[in-house]
Amino acid sequence: MNPRHLEKIKKCFELGKSGNPNEAATALAMAHKLMRKYGLSEDDIDFIEMGATTTASKIQKKPVAYAVNLGTSIASSFKCEVLLQYSYHGNNFKFIGRKDTAMMSAYAFDVLFRQLKLARKAFLATVHTRTSKQNKTKRADCYCDGWVNSVVRNLDVEELPPEEKERITNYRKHIGSYTEKKAKSRQRKGGSISDYLTGSHDGKNVRVNTPIHGSEGERLCLQ
Questions:
Q1: Where is the region Disordered (predicted)?
Q2: What is the pLDDT of residue 189?
């Protein structure tokens, strides 16, 4: 299907919302005429704005809780849904929603996850060398929990509107997403409140400024 045809039909539907009854009726009639011509349904038109973007960051098959927390919070902030995508080349988060917000969600996750890994590495450098590998991992995970929770508090996290949730569900059925599913996290026990608070302190100044959907000069700002 030629994308230009879809855009033409979509514009007709937009004109169909006109306050001028005659203009609206003419636009809707033209939209349905073009739909019949190209064999399209209303769902096909609705899905023109939808898309999915996969993160560059690799994710474990059963990701740790802080990774899922970061992914789901970013998705909520951008009014998207996040799934874990499996492949032979590794696992990634896939953000599904409107094309622009799905892309920005994946970008935000990659940038923040990269910052988190650097912060984790710096934290581990402060842990006593005689600490066992297992305890180092537990302490670092506790640090990451604190870091992510601070970042999440700086996000404008909202529940996905019912109409947007339905749109995403229908889009997933439309594209047939069989290799993705909701990510189930695992929480490692261990670490200390001190490790958590250190992470919380280090993450509190990390911010993501969510752009207004459809605004002119739309951009994503990470600090």
A1: 178-223
A2: 66
Tell me the C-alpha distance between 81 and 73, whole Å: 10
Give pLDDT, residue 178.
53
d(C-alpha 126, C-alpha 179), whole Å: 40
Mean pLDDT, rounded, of the chain: 83
Query: Rg of the chain's alpha carbons, rounded to an integer?
Result: 22
Let me know: does 95 contact 110? Beta carbons within 8 Å: no
Question: Strand order of the sheet with strand 50-54?
Answer: 50-54, 92-98, 81-85, 180-181
* Residue 60 CB contacts under 8 Å (≥ 6 apart), including other chains: 67, 91
Cβ neighbours of residue 1 closer than 8 Å, sequence gap 6 or more: 38, 40, 44
Q: Which residue carries 């581990």 as its tokens? A: 124
The Cα 40–Cα 36 span in angstroms is 6
Angle between helical axes of 99-124 and 133-153 (0-180°, round to 10)? 140
- Is residue 13 within 8 Å of 27, Cβ to Cβ? yes
Tell me the percentage of the chain whose pLDDT exceeds 70. Answer: 83
Q: Which residues pair with 98 in a beta bridge?
A: 50
CA distance 76 to 157: 5
Q: How far is CA 147 from CA 14, 32, 196, 208, in A?
A: 44, 52, 8, 14
